[in-house]
Amino acid sequence: DCLDELFNPEDRRYRYPFINCTNCGPRFTIIGSLPYDRPATSMKDFPMCPRCAAEYADPLDRRFHAQPDACWDCGPHISWVNLAQGQEEPQWGDTREASDAIFAEAVKLLLDGGIVAVKGLGGFHLVCDASNPDALAKLRQRKRRQGKAFAVMVAGTADARRACHVDKAEQGALESTKRPIVLLRKRAEAQFAAGLADNLPELGVMLPCTPVQHLLLHDFAEALRAQQGDSALPMLVMTSGNLHNEPIVTDDDQALVKFAGIADAVLGNDRHILSRYDDSVLRVVRVGDEQAIQFVRRARGFAPLPIALDCPEAQPKQETLLATGSEQKATFALVRAATADDQRPDAFVSQHIGDVENAETYDAWLDAEERYRQLFQETPHRLACDAHPEYLASKWAREQAQRNNLPLTEVQHHHAHIASVLGENGLFGPVCGIAFDGTGYGADGRVWGGEVLLVNQQAYERFANFAYVPMPGGAACVKHPLRMAYGVLWAYDLLEHPAAAVALAPLGDEAEVCDTMIERGLNTPMTSSVGRLFDAASALLGICTEPSYEGEGAILLEAAMETAGADEPGAAAAEGAAGVVPDDDLAARERYAVTAEKNTATETSTAEDTSVILLDAEATFHALLDDLEAGVPVSVIGRRFHDAMVSAIVMSAELVRALYGIATVALSGGVFMNRYLTEHVLADLAAAGFTAAINRDLPPNDGCISLGQAVVCSARSGE
């Protein structure tokens, strides 16, 4: 209804950039306090004109009690500052003619290859023409964002289908009122500008969600088609308006400072954003005829919708608790005590905040935590945090617990991963928990990340893990994965393999340094991380030796498989979805197979830090090097490596079922952001008779950790 009015020349709100009604418009990002009334929002600065006030007071009107209701006469207006031209004072769009002139300037700048910072609901976007490789290169250079794909905005699903495959579930997600970024498979025949989403099978696509975005894209499309004809596909890059690793910018004055040297102009407005929100990102995963939403980032449109902790065997707790989450992809969870009317406690998991090792992001985390407590009017009686001794959020929790004499539950990272799946799916356990990620602080002080756990909400036992391998240089292995590859080959006694010398040659003199560090135990933590094994494989295959963002090696390793064919679960459900190179070589699968052996370690003795079984990937990497030496295509080697990991998961689940009779498997951790791995594991587990559970309302990466901590803390408080 509002869109009809927005583009209706006869309507009094024709082309008004802040048109809204009770069915749309901003909510959480403008709320200062509850109850949700206009004086308690950032709309308090805009007294309603008589016509808007009459709509607001009329129960039969579509804008009855629409708190952000406004029009040209009484509401917010857009502003324009051309930074490239040295403009200092904003140009205001306080009339339709002035506003249209600003949009015209923005469109001209975009068509000329410029970059515009555009204020959205929860923060700024940096915007450029997605079909202009020069503009994309300029944006990457200025924002210091090399390699990582950009998301794009198109006008509607029809335009999205010209670039990508879109099935019904994906269409539903795109067109929902939440307007997330949806990861869609690119069409093989579609042409994409260099620098948009190179070497990846997917493209992040979103539809407009604000009147400003509708107007900008509408005018850009008209101008582009006037230049290039009706066959042109208007697409705008819409990437978070921030510097590398910093939170998105929300304030107009700050935008003029932060975006100097990045954006050529700032399209802002005078309606203040009170809560910072990134765009949500998700994909649809398929197993046969079934489909499920998998979040990559949960933020605008979804947070802070409550997650009911509906676990029938758990007793409802009459306490409010706060779980502080992880260090990366940080969220926190505020769990409101159950009431007499509703025996299920509600968990309000915050929006994605980012990596809190960055000082400004940590400040954003503190601000968001305080805002949630104020808005929901809850004071935590218990705290939960990650067991890592150095996580900033965990340190904050320990300080708060000591200062306020509050009970604190420290939760092992991978237990939290699996507990989040239990909480989301209404399970108490026990389950076989497969927790595969890049980094997590283990109970034995080592870096975990390849864990098979026996889990219920209160506790866990470590049943199996990938055998430890050294990380020469520690965190340096993440940025320089050939170091990780050296550590893996050292552990598996494969450094003398003929293919190893070639693959590790780019290390140069660093190889000797790595060897010395490992032999002497200098800054060389030991890890069981599957994420690091993916990094090592990607580096050995020459796919990614110098990642420009977290997880790039694993992402490109998965992408390298997608060169031909259609051999994946649910491929028929996606219209013409690209597949991977088929591999029916049973002998090759046997060569790559991860082996399981009894753990004979005697250093520790608890069921938390000592596993029953060790998973050994030595054969996997030996086969990888053999195939590399034999000239087997990288796409096939990548497929075989992935299949080895799928088989290792199913084998682990079968061992657990044989020994303990547990037939429910819960999967979580950043490694399961891999679409191929997730879909094939789910399909193979189902074929083997298992019930599998995954994260549904939260991402499997560290964005789910706070909920998992809350589940464990709640369960333990009543044990």
Describe the structure.
This protein has 719 residues and is of the alpha/beta class. 35% of the residues lie in helices and 17% in strands. The chain has 22 helices and 26 strands. Strands 2-1-9-3-4-8-5-7-6-10-11 form an 11-stranded mixed beta sheet, sandwiched between helices. A 7-stranded mixed beta sheet has the order 23-24-20-19-18-25-26, with helices on both faces. Strands 12-15-14-13-16-17 form a 6-stranded mixed beta sheet, with helices on both faces. Residues 564-578 have low confidence and may be disordered.
Major beta sheet, strand line-up: 2-1-9-3-4-8-5-7-6-10-11
- The rounded distance between the terminal residues' Cα atoms is 52 Å
Structural classification: alpha/beta
Instruction: Summarize model confidence as the mean pLDDT.
Output: 93
- Count, helices: 22
> Helix fraction?
25-40%
Gross morphology: globular
Provide the β-strand percentage band: 15-25%
Q: Please tally the β strands and state the result.
A: 26
Poorly predicted tracts of residues: 564-578
Radius of gyration from the alpha-carbon trace, in angstroms: 26 Å
Instruction: Profile the largest sheet.
Output: 11 strands, mixed
Q: How would you summarize the topology of this molecule?
A:
Layout: H1 2-6, H2 50-57, E1 78-81, E2 91-93, H3 96-111, E3 116-119, E4 124-129, H4 133-143, E5 152-153, H5 157-163, H6 168-175, E6 181-185, E7 202-206, H7 211-228, E8 236-240, H8 252-258, E9 265-269, E10 281-287, E11 290-297, E12 307-308, E13 321-323, E14 333-336, E15 346-349, H9 359-376, E16 382-386, H10 392-404, E17 408-411, H11 413-425, E18 431-441, E19 447-455, E20 460-466, E21 469-470, H12 476-479, H13 481-491, H14 498-504, H15 510-520, E22 526-527, H16 530-540, H17 552-561, H18 586-592, E23 595-598, E24 613-616, H19 618-630, H20 634-660, E25 664-668, H21 675-687, E26 691-694, H22 705-717
Parallel strand pairs: 3-9, 5-7, 6-10, 13-16, 16-17, 18-25, 20-24, 25-26
Antiparallel strand pairs: 1-2, 1-9, 3-4, 4-8, 5-8, 6-7, 10-11, 12-15, 13-14, 14-15, 18-19, 19-20, 21-22, 23-24
